[in-house]
Structure formats: C-alpha cells, structure tokens
Amino acid sequence: MKYLILVRHAKSCWENNEIDHKRPINKRGKNDAELVSKFLEKTLDVVPDLIVISDAKRAQLTAEIFIKNLKWQNVETQLNHDLYDFSGESAFNVITSCPIEVNNLVIFGHNPTFTLLASQLGSEFIDNIPTTGVVIIAFDVDSWENIKSGETIKTIYPRDLK
After folding, report:
1. 10 near 30, Cβ under 8 Å?
2. What angle, rounded to 10 degrees, do the helices at 57-69 and 27-43 form?
3. What is the pLDDT of residues 94-142, one digit of tens each?
4. Deepest in the core among 3, 9, 35, 161, taking most CB within 10 A?
C-alpha cells in the first residue's frame, strides 16, 4: 500500500513585489498552516518515509511548519524544482519516480497541479484544493510507477477547522 499526502502551500504574501518563486507566506497562511498541521498531529496515523517540497519559498515555509508540528524532523526531506509545476506532468513524474521502499510520501506544492492530481489519482472529484489544503490518497500498489487510481481517504481544509 502506498499513501500520497498532497499539501498545497499556505496563503502567500503579495506585498513586497517579490517574483512568484520567492513569495513568502502571509499571516493568514502561517495561521492556517499551524491550524491544519496541529489537527493532523492529532489525527494522522501515517508517518512519511519521504517529504518532497517545491523549492518555491512559500512551499518551503509551509513545510517547515508542518515538519515542526508533526515532529517529522527525522524524515528524509528533499527540495525539488519539478514540484514548481502548474500542469501536473512534472509533479506526477516526481511521484512515480519515488523509490519502491517509500510507502508514505508527502509532497508540498502548488495549484492547479495538486487539484488536478487529486482529482485524477483519487476516487473523488475535487474542484479546488485551497491554500494549506491536504488530500490523502491510498494506492493498492507495490511501486509508485504503477499508480493509476487510488482511494481518496481524507481531505482537510482550513475552513473546515475554523
């Protein structure tokens, strides 16, 4: 069994005229990341084998909050520019190229890619994963390269926790 946990980055800041790749998260984004990650800390029974993070600043900052609150500091973590993807193809390749020994994969990235992947790979149509939204999909396969369709087992959105 393979578990994919998609985490869309927290709400980003537009105030400093930063280029898209370097935009940080704003106050609401920090609060939502704290809220969702603390909820997961109490309810998630899956510990990741690997965490892969888009190299965009907002994804990295979101991941830092989740890693701290979920006590994932000892989990292997990788930055991957291919998750700074807005079509889905590169992100899908990141997922399907994961080593076979990785059973629980967490990735931090962007929309529209994550909504597209969640709808195509999961068992539910998802119209939009909001910022700091989490979707967990289970796949009954032995290898990531064989994933086609899985079961959407959980969605967590900040608005549902407020």
Report:
1. yes
2. 40
3. 999 999 999 999 999 999 999 999 999 999 999 999 999 999 999 999 9
4. 9
Residue-number span of the structural domain to which 52 is assigned: 2-13+23-161
Alpha-carbon span 78 to 116, nearest angstrom: 22
Query: pLDDT tens for residues 48-105?
Result: 999 999 999 999 999 999 999 999 999 999 999 999 988 889 999 999 999 999 999 9
Angle of the 89-96 helix axis to the 113-121 helix axis, nearest 10: 60
Asked whether residue 45 is assigned to any structural domain, the reply reads yes
Q: Which two tokens stand for residue 66?
A: 């989740």
98 within some domain = yes
For 8, the token pair is 């869309």
Q: Count how many domains the chain has.
A: 1
Question: Burial, 42: exposed, middle or buried (Cβ in 10 Å; 0-12, 13-18, 19+)?
Answer: exposed
Residues 6 or more apart from 7 whose CB is under 8 A from it? Answer: 62, 63, 66, 106, 107, 108, 109, 132, 133, 134
Six token digits for residue 61: 């900052």
